[in-house]
Amino acid sequence: MTGHGLRGGVTAVLAGLGTCLPPKVVTNDDLSLVLDTSDEWIVRRTGIRRRHVIEPGSSTSVLAAEAGRRALKSAQCDQADAVVLATSTPDMLCPATAPEVADALGLAGIPAFDVAAVCAGFVYALATGAGLISTGIAERVLVIGADTFSTILDPTDRTTRAIFGDGAGAVLLRQGEPGEPGALGPFDLGSDGSLSQLITVPAGGSRQRASGVPAAERDHYFTMQGKPVFKQAVTRMTESSRSVLARAGWTADDVDRVVAHQANARILAALADSLGLPPHKIASNIDRVGNTVAASIPLALADADLRTGEKVLLTAFGGGLSWGSTVLHWPDVVPQ
Questions:
Q1: What are the residue boundaries of the Beta-ketoacyl-[acyl-carrier-protein] synthase III C-terminal domain, all occurrences included (predicted)?
Q2: Which of 20, 28, 52, 291 is catalytic?
Q3: What is the residue extent of each domain of the chain?
Q4: Of the residues 20, 28, 52, 261, which is catalytic?
Q5: Catalytic residue among 119, 264, 285, 329
Q6: 3 state SS of 166
């Protein structure tokens, strides 16, 4: 699905950016003490050196609320008219986590809901927030990406435990005018459910519960088929990026920075090559935080040292399969 941006003189403008990482850090050397792995093996395959993980007493909502609080501070604002939370690790299966986040932020009575598109969730949530603004439902929308994948990883699986980390990132979108710094451009979104089994948590949903067959312990953990996911990620993000650039009237050469989902350092390198861009244009913080799923893009935005006016391409790929992209001129925003 493609969108040509918001019309009628009303658009969504990025006005604030906040992030939150849990304090506990797990290094590759830490993992090597409990798994058959090593720092060299993990770095060579993923580019990751460390990741943050939550401890007992914390949860996705805790990280999301703090990132949202910091995004509001960055925007010098204490109010929002809606909260859209992208997550695949909600605090509970029911209800959604966003209303609790809104309550924690003192935003009583406003619409708040979750969006589940795994690693593409933040771009989907951005498009949703932009839609709320374009239709006049809200003037300010807090868009949050937060995940705690450490809670759904098989503790004996060296591959997934090496890749994923916990974190949250948020932006405040406000009503503005097309063309001003921070105005979100067109969106490109897509999915392919025929390949849903490439990225999955088999147990816990209605399909498994209705089967009448008790789930095996391993079925409660995240699984991913690495090789086909790698190919799909590069292909889908490349196609989506090209589509949204064409609709924005940009070429790949016009792009100053690409802030893509931080899935794997090799995927980022392959994306740069596929788009014909030099590696330095691809923002990366995966070595320090790992794959933080829906939090990935806002965390990378905060670390990218972007300059006001730079042309920025956002692109992501995740389970579903799902993917999405958008563009903007970077505004004068100080991340918190």
A1: 245-330
A2: 291
A3: 1-336
A4: 261
A5: 119
A6: coil
